[in-house]
Amino acid sequence: MMDEEKKIPETENIPAENGENGAENAPAPAENAPEQKENGAAQNDAEKEAEKAEAMAHRLAQKRRLRYGTFATLITVAVVAAVFVLNVVVSMLKDRYPLSIDLTSTGMYDISDESKAYVKGLTQDVKITVLAKQSSLTSSNEYLTQVDKIIEAYAKNSDRVTLQYVDLTENPTFTANYPDLDLADNDVIVECGGRTKVVSINDMLTYDSSNYYYTGKYTIESSTAEQTMTNAIMYVASGEVSKIQFITGLGETDSADLQKLLTSNSYDVSTLNLLSEDPDPDAAALVWFGPTLDPTEEQLKKLDKYLAEGGNLFVFVDPLTGDQPALDAFLSEWGLEEIKGVAFETDTNYMLNNSPYFPIVQYTDTDFAGSLVGSNSYTAFYRMRPVAAKFETSGYITTDVLLSLSAKSGYHAADVSSDYQIQDSDIKGSVGAMILAKSYDGKVTSNVVLTGSTTAFSGEFLTNTAVSNAEYLVGVFNKLCDRGNMVTIAAKDFSSQSNNMTTAQLTGAIVLFMGVIPLAVLAAGIVIWVRRRRK
Predict the structure, then answer these.
(1) Which long-range contacts does 507-515 make (Cβ < 8 Å, 24+ apart)?
(2) What confidence tens digit (pLDDT) does each residue in 64-98 have?
(3) Which of the 8 DSSP states describes residue 207?
């Protein structure tokens, strides 16, 4: 057995079963096995490391998502909480401070800087009571909403002003607190220091009845809410009011619009019939608005007596009024003259609507114009009668031109035909529009103001925001009536925005937009076309 085992050939000498090619498929030599094991182990380690890195990245991503999600949730909660707190704060402040902004070009829903300055300077408490539901005002129409916003603005701009709304339907016994007053819905009660003034919201709007016959409705033109409220507050805070008397009985022009303007600016307006009454010696001024009849000597003596005691007289005349020799003589004593004819303007920089009879007047005496000097607004006349000063100084009387037309202005007869062509000989230069005559004898000061138009101080001229006729005239009244602390406020016009461009500006705009710009665009197009053709 042992010999047979010895005869077994060694493995290395056994030929391959597949012949010579079998050597290729033979197992690797034994000395390569350790290297293969090392490579396999390294590969396994790399795979494990990759798996660990991937697992770690996954865990980091999960942590990052969790962290960002938590952070985003906290931000959302914080923003929601901030919005909630902001709403609470705004709700608490909105009724006390002016948080709204009026973006209208004319400031329709806010009071003027003058009114704000006045109420901020109040030294006494003022209480405003509106006899209506606020919701009923703001939901009715834009006009009552505007009035309500104006009333609200006073309380929002002063700690001294409080505002409340009382519905008489829900509180019928409220009027018992005011037994001496005849109160009604939409009345506004203004109180201060035991003084009370009642105004009506209905009287804070001006109406146009010209189309009533056709439509059966009145058209609301403007709001006098700020005029009315500011001056009501001034009245109860000061307890003072100036009297103005409008002369009647001599065919005067309708002065209702001017009377309303003065009333809304805290003047106590009444009428005076010179035929049967004497002027009130306490009246701050008398107004003679477009008389068409000549006064008697007796009536003029009443005026002389009033003026001798330090009064003020405003006389408005028109170009088509006939001869009035007695009035002319009275004015002449004061150095004033009303010239027969119609004034016109030829300088297009001072013309409106391309009309020579629609002039923009110059503030010859800037002291009476105040803040209007240099502003974007202006004072305009229409179909005016020229007025003049006969002297500068004579005795105790001095004259002062307050308003005039330009150096290219003039006048001609009032009865010319509608197609009359202005002649060079008609141009006089610097035609007077408003002249002041002042008398001072060392003790008493009195004034007479002569104005060459009634149209310029009635109707739309007193409510249209494109012109400053109302502000200017009230300013003159305040200055001569010694009310320098008063605020001059014009009505706010509800009509569409007016074109307040002068004739020269309008002509320039037409040339620019209908001439220069189209020609420039056409020229640029031709140049581009030529260049492309040459390429």
Answers:
(1) 507/348
(2) 666 666 766 777 778 778 877 877 776 665 555 54
(3) E
Alpha-carbon span 55 to 33, nearest angstrom: 33
352: helix, strand or coil:
strand
**Entry pTM:** 0.64
CA 340 vs CA 143, 232, 319, 452: distances in Å = 43, 42, 7, 11
* Nearest residue to 340 (alpha-carbon basis) of 388, 400, 291: 388
Q: How buried is 316 (Cβ within 10 angstroms: 0-12 exposed, 13-18 middle, 19+ buried)?
A: buried
pLDDT band at 315 (very low <50, low <70, confident <90, very high): very high
CB 495 within 8 A of CB 221: yes
Interatomic CA distance for residues 294 and 212, integer angstroms: 35
Amino acid identity, position 97: Y
Backbone dihedral angles phi then psi of residue 402, each to the nearest 5 degrees: -85, -45
Q: CA dist 54 to 51, 57, 194, 534, Å?
A: 5, 5, 87, 67
Query: Containing H/E element for 446?
Result: strand 445-451
From the list 438, 436, 471, 437, the residue with the least C-alpha distance to 457 is: 471
Measure the CA–CA gap between 231 and 243, rounded to whole angstroms.
14
Q: Give DSSP secondary structure letters for 466-527.
A: TB-HHHHHHHHHHHHTT-TTPPP-PPEE-SPPP---BHHHHHHHHHIIIIIHHHHHHHHHHH
